[in-house]
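ok so i was messing around last nite and threw this chain in just to see what happens. nothing serious, just curious
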Amino acid sequence: VLSHNLCTVLNVPHDPVALEEHFRDDDEGPVSNQGYMPYLNKFILEKVQGNFDKVEFNRMCWTLCAKKNLSKSPLLISDEDAFKVWVIFNFLSEDKYPLIIVPEEIEYLLKKITEAMGAGWQQEQFDHYKVALNTSQEGLSAWELIDLIGSGQFSKGMDRQTVSMAINEVFNELILDVLKQGYMLKKGHKRKNWMERWFVLKPNIISYYVSEDLKDKKGDIILDGNCCVEALPDKDGKKCLFLIKCLDKTFEISASDKKKKQEWIQAIQSTVSLLRAGSPPPHKEARQKRKELRQKLLAEQEELERQMKELQAANENKQKELETVRKQLEAAAARAAEEEKKRLQTQVELQDRFSLELEREKMVRQKMEEQVAQKSSELEQYLQRVRELEEMYKQLQEALEDEKQARQDEETVRKLQARLLEEETAKRAELEKWHLQQQQTIQMTEAEKQELENQRMMKEQALQVAMEQLKQLELERKEALEQYEEVKKKLETAANNTKSWKDKVAHHEGLIRLIEPGSKNPHLITNWGPAAFTEAELEQRQRSWKGKKATSE
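result:
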């Protein structure tokens, strides 16, 4: 059953014949002495292609081991959250068996969960916990890590739902490789309409769903090194637009505001840059860097310990040499005393021999003093080397202090990111409120649209009536024009008839004058009536009269 389930989850064809052949029945029981691990490696794990659901595989492994190892004491997290912590542990643990998670990775995980909850990180509290942990063991197992997070020691004041959401957010980032997610509008390729979708950005793909529960998937945008993203100007009533260009398609997307637009553009550009460079996702790269840093510090510490052991061994050797020299000096002094005693006893008989021995003893003593001086010089050099090592140790301490300061700076930046996350959450709530208002407005607009449609139908009917009236008026206008043409012809005939008569009358203007419209100048009254002459005509007549009068005289 175990082998069949593993093959199903890992998408490997199950071979029951190989299973029966490998586990042949014998006198010792149904399983042969070869054991299960060789069969697992040869017939299952070597055939894995990587095209399986890792979450389902982890869930199966969790089912096999959780019941036996999970603590029976009540925890502040659910079984699903405990499973996600277990998967995160497998990602962050060291690559050696039995698996443990070191204090540095525990601090990283707890900081990520605390930031996701929007709480402040208690560095002092973790330092006390780290000191107590280092004195007892090198790290925590998966079940100890679940007990630590489930005990609420580093999430005091937070409810179960907040802790669960924080664990889920960290799980999405570290395990599911979710780099960014959120609601945006997408323009369709066929109907060209805009629909709201939940977008999820991963290292090589952007998936979009109907909602954030990820149940109804609508499509994928495959990313590679040839993709690019460009900002677009506002058009068609849509704002905060940008364009994702791939080899076969382009996608127009509208963000909710300029900040979200810039964040998405930067995230997609960073993802494409990583694909071009062939680099892993940021969290995996950061984990590799932390691991390399730990290995480097461990190597430096081992080298320092090795040097200290060598110095200690050299010191012990020098101490042994000095002890040997001291014993030699004591033996020489004892021999000198003995010789002195013998010399006093045999002073008379061995005067000459004593002188020779005395000279010899002086020479020996001089050699011994030279050896002591040499050993003292070597001891001074040794002490100088010890002082140099102490200086190296101080420099190493300063480097550790610098690293601590860098971590504090990193914590400050993470707090700032947490505050920005809170602001983003508030804005998201406000956007959801606006979305509800927009839906209500759309419903009202539909009713108004129906009413306007009715009014349009009435106006079209009125327009048809007006068009019929306009046609009637056009006919009447044509008839009036025909009547006008007839009157105009009659007027022209009458004008021609009166023109000859007017010329005849012009010779007798003293008797008869046609009545014409008066001038706009002031009226003049003459014998022929008001406005019978203009001023110019009157002046001409006056000059004519004066000329006739002068001639008669």
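not much to say yet. The first strand starts at residue 180 and ends at 187.
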